[in-house]
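Deliverable D5.2: sample structural annotation.
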Amino acid sequence: MADSARDALDEMARCAAISDAGERLRCYDAAAAQGRDALKPQPADFGKPAPRVPEPAQITASLRQFWKTSRGLAVFVLDNGQTWRQLEADGSTILEPAPGTAPKVTIDHGLLDSYNLTIEGRNGLIKVRRIQ
């Protein structure tokens, strides 16, 4: 399936270079049909885990907002638009950043598909999951 999807994307890239609008549209229509076929579930794939989309090893951003839920879990809104929440299993006590500061945070992969958030200038890590 991955090769068929890649072929459809390659075909769309080729279509983008066509200057005649009608010809370009026909090319895109054919590539879209090829892409739909590539994404249809195949009986041979039944039971296989879904392929993982590659992602960066870590991200770094500035903390734009911080608050705690009614259960005392920290919520982090980053300047890149992502929102992360502390896991209930993480018993760390997170102190609110000083007013007017936007500390840098780094989020990287932990064990077993978990994520770890660290705050610049503070020791320790916080187990988090992305909620937006």
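Annotation notes: The beta strands are 58-68, 74-78, 83-86, 104-109, 115-119, 126-130. The chain has a mean pLDDT of 91.
The annotation will be released with the project's public dataset once the embargo ends.
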